[in-house]
Design brief:
Blueprint (H helix, E strand, L loop, with lengths): L1 H14 L2 H58 L2 H15 L2 H28 L1 H8 L6 H9 L1 H16 L3 H25 L5 H26 L13 H32 L2 H14 L3 H20 L3 H38 L7 H17 L2 H7 L3 H26 L1 H27 L13
Length: 450
């Protein structure tokens, strides 16, 4: 009760701050959506673990990581740049100007996705046999390549909704993929008990979300555009030049977050990949708070920076980090103290072996939470090139450590590599911000800072 009262006081204090209340209110909606989304995804994972087993979990994790990798090269960083461009064009020019940027980006991503998906479809056998040493999975890799265009457009539309600050719509877009996946999985489990149902359900959910998201974005723009809106033309070349450094950031994020699954898939069995994927899902329960607050903070960062309000920018960024810390602390504590019985009760006794890996991943998430929205702060304030270099170094560290540690230590080696690389890029980014601006966006309860 004492912790609840303290948390309530913190929220009231934050909400009384007019500069921050917009982010707080938006974050509450986004956080609620992330809670629902995470809960639905966790429920789907429990169903898969209990009914289909660790091997099915591992196959799904490898397919997810494979498709995430392809999508990086299909989206080309536009999912991050659109988050900066839409609020910038809306503030400087008009909604119609922002729509023109969105439409050009949408067509560009669709074209690149089709080409990229086709290339990976043709090479799916090579990927399954030579990269993962699992030729029996070539069908799944080929099937995943077909859905590249759907996953790419899903990501772009979700970020575009976020860039327009459509809070309730963004919340819906967060919930739709896991909800669709769970419903399709349950229906398939009841009527078509095929061991491949988890993969089919996941791909179908992405397809549904992509179509719905495109329809939502079209209506959202057309309802807000006016005939006399000023339009600032921005070509594909300009969009690509802005997006490319962000592509590097996104790709490095993939390596820091998913390389453990990829390398585990190369050296270990599908079941061990399944154990690790569950550890990641539980550990990143702390990340959904960060993502929820980021969903509202990132466009605000862009707006404040491009209108020259630097004091407000740091004020909002620090308040965001403080909110992140106090909302993630209870989750971190529960996972460390009760993680082993949670793994056993929810997923089955076999999954309790993932507890040490989960604790290591939780430590990395703790560093992430006290650092705040470092990635979005850098990308929204024109420092995407510097952040690209930082995240590249973190990715190299992760890959190198994973290659050394995973063959010997398995999932614990993967978790240790992830923890070290995540800590590196957050701390390195905080130091850059401190030296460049003389201030920090991190929140350290026991230390005084400005």
């Amino acid at each position: 009760m004492r912790m609840e009262r303290a948390f309530a006081r913190i929220v009231r204090k934050l909400n009384s701050d007019r500069k921050f209340s917009e982010i707080l209110i938006g974050s509450i909606f986004a956080l609620s959506a992330r809670v629902a989304s995470t809960g639905l995804a966790m429920l789907a994972s429990i169903v898969i673990a209990r009914i289909y087993g660790a091997k099915a979990m591992g196959i799904l994790a490898m397919i997810n990581s494979f498709l995430a990798l392809i999508t990086i090269f299909a989206v080309l960083g536009t999912d991050t740049s659109i988050l900066r461009l839409l609020p910038e064009h809306t503030a400087r020019y008009s909604v119609t100007s922002a729509f023109h940027v969105y439409r050009k980006t949408q067509y560009f991503v669709a074209a690149i996705s089709i080409v990229t998906g086709a290339l990976f479809f043709l090479g799916s056998g090579l990927v399954a046999g030579k990269v993962f040493s699992k030729p029996h999975l070539s069908f799944f890799f080929g099937l995943a390549a077909i859905f590249v265009v759907f996953r790419s457009l899903m990501l772009l539309n979700t970020m575009a909704v976020r860039g327009l600050m459509l809070i309730r719509t963004f919340a819906f877009m967060q919930v739709l993929p896991p909800l669709a996946m769970l419903l399709i999985l349950l229906a398939a489990t009841v009527f078509f008990r095929n061991p491949n149902n988890p993969v089919y359900a996941q791909l179908a959910a992405w397809g549904i979300t992509a179509v719905v998201g495109a329809w939502i974005m079209d209506r959202a723009f057309r309802n807000r555009m006016r005939p006399d809106d000023a339009v600032h033309s921005m070509g594909i070349k300009d969009i690509a030049s802005l997006s490319f450094p962000m592509l590097m950031t996104t790709s490095m994020h993939f390596f820091t977050g998913q390389i453990g699954v990829i390398i585990l898939g190369m050296f270990r069995s599908e079941s061990e990949v399944g154990y690790y994927s569950v550890a990641v899902k539980l550990a990143t329960l702390t990340a959904f708070v960060l993502q929820a607050i980021n969903s509202m903070a990132a466009p605000k960062f862009s707006e404040l920076y491009h209108t020259g309000r630097m004091d407000e920018l740091f004020h909002v960024a620090r308040k965001s980090t403080k909110l992140i810390f106090w909302t993630t602390a209870p989750i971190l504590l529960v996972l460390v103290l009760l993680g082993r019985p949670i793994l056993g009760l929810a997923f089955g006794n076999d999954f309790a072996v993932a507890y040490p890996a989960m604790v290591l991943l939780v430590i990395g998430q703790f560093v992430n939470s006290i650092s705040g929205s470092t990635a979005h702060f850098m990308n929204m304030t024109g420092c995407q090139g510097v952040f690209r270099n930082i995240i590249f170094a973190a990715a190299v560290i992760n890959v190198a450590l994973s290659v050394v540690l995973i063959p010997r230590y398995g999932i614990n080696g993967a978790a240790l590599a992830s923890m070290i690389s995540l800590g590196y890029w957050n701390i390195r980014t905080l130091l850059f911000i401190k030296f460049k601006y003389g201030s920090t966006i991190g929140y350290f309860p026991l230390l005084r800072h400005r």
